[in-house]
Amino acid sequence: MALCSQQLPVRRTPATSPWPAAPASELATPAPAYADVPRARSEGTGSTWTGDAPVRACARACASSGHATPRPCTRHERRLGPSWTRPSTRTMAISPNESAACPYPPSVLDFVDFRGLAASTVDESWPCEVRTFWVHDLRPFVEAVRFIYAYFTLFVVALGMLLNFFALRVWSSRAMSGTSLSVYLRALSLSDMGALICTYFLGYWRSHHPGFNELFLNNESICRFHKVVVSMFPMTSQWLQTALTVERLLVVWRPLRARNPYYPQLAARAARRTVGVVYLTLILVALTKWHFSGFEQYSAFEYQRCEHNAHSSVVAVYVYVALSTYLPGTIIFVSNVMLFLRLRRSDSLRRSLFAGSAHDGACYGSDAAARTLLLFSLLYLLLQLPLGVVETAELYWDVTLYHPPTTDPVKRKAYIFWLNTKLQLKWARGLLFWLFQLSFVLNFVVYLKSGGRFRAVAKGLAWHWLTCGLSPLRTAGRSLSTLPHHLGGSAAASAAASAGRPPPTARRAATCRPRAPAARPPSSSPTSPWRRPRRRWRP
């Protein structure tokens, strides 16, 4: 088998131009030989490194010589001979020494753009140990994350939009709109829908439709505005949950204020002011992304980022992570713990006061409130807090513990370890960022657990939609006792009977175990004090 003997250089040419004919002087020039590799994933135009000249020159050399080199000529190259020219579709080339020592070319790193980089720079920045770690250890996990982003993102976005729109419609009904809770949760539903559209749907569309992404790349204002809304809506959802938790804590901590007959109107008015302040403050905070860049520049959707805004500030990113994760998380956790302890103490005092009476063992609303708080806390701890922790670790690792590429053997080992850990943190953040969107969908489950009124109105509204408006929807009541017949307890009782379960009242009685009233003594006298005299009808 004929082997290429000459060591050939690589030229830098535009990606759209074929490589010109190589002169005979280049065949004798001692320079590193290169083997063509597949093009790295990128979306751009301009000049690129190609491997066309070495391949064609190798074909010429194979047709005339038979010297041994590390790279053998292929059968196709020997058959084509000196007149063969490969189309210029390659972007990177590596040296034969590196190819012989490392079985994985730089092209296996499909997330890196190698255009305009020398082979020595690439070999120094992405050593063979890093490529081996990528292929054997990290790429299966990365492929799984990419599969989730590609095939499940649109489904989660569509489901979240449907559930949040339905929850917004329920909280806006006449039966639910008169409380401060409905004000907070209406704003939370709107914020969740904005996060699903601006953060996840647009990211998916930009990564899968390069023509749509060109609108952002060619327009600086649109690109900067997208960075602002990507940061604003998720942070707004977190702070609305924080404001709702603090509001519930104040209500339980000062219960006498709720005895005021005008308290619902006052609380709803205060909630509207709080929501307005939260939105205005977070819009101002998010506008800092108009100038500074953050994690949105390295999106897990892997679309080509905008290069209009290259300003970066480590302090600004740390402040953003603290405002979006640690500060609201700490307030929510501490408030929920205080609220849970307060409710437990109130229940114990109530049981001790009514011990031995007819109200001994009666049910109160603290169990439902504690369950709602527990769900909010678990949702935050499982889906939101891990993302903030990984973002902080990645920022600290990339900036504070940075190791530059080097050829020193000792420092090279430290650089390889740093780069491998950096890749792990990057894709772990990508997976947690996708899981973070589930919190905008699962909030509807928390709404269902918030109380029976929401479930009753949601059931009636869903039936009204499923029957295409043929079933009248009348939700003018302010409580379950004034709701229509198909939204009240009869529907729940019939559903329980069809499922073979006792009605809700029976289950509540069996759970709470109320004390039975004292038996009345039998009496046959018509004037007995235990029998109310029958009222006669008078014309």
Automatic annotation (TrEMBL):
InterPro entries given in the database record: GPCR-Ligand_Int, GPCR_Rhodpsn, GPCR_Rhodpsn_7TM
Main location group: membrane
Entry keyword Transmembrane: yes
GO molecular function, one term: G protein-coupled receptor activity
Keyword Transmembrane helix annotated: yes
Keywords of this entry: Membrane, Transmembrane, Transmembrane helix
Ranges annotated as spanning the membrane: 148-171, 183-205, 277-295, 315-341, 427-448
Residue ranges the record marks as coiled coil: none
Region (Disordered): 1-26, 493-539
Entry-linked Gene3D superfamilies: Rhodopsin 7-helix transmembrane proteins
Pfam families (alphabetical): 7tm_1
Listed Low complexity bias regions: 13-25, 493-518
GO cellular component terms, semicolon-separated: membrane
PROSITE patterns, sorted: G_PROTEIN_RECEP_F1_2
Subcellular location, record wording: Membrane
Domain G-protein coupled receptors family 1 profile: start-end pairs: 163-447
Source superkingdom: Eukaryota
Protein family per UniProt: Belongs to the G-protein coupled receptor 1 family.
Descriptive protein name: G-protein coupled receptors family 1 profile domain-containing protein
Species the sequence originates in: Megalurothrips usitatus
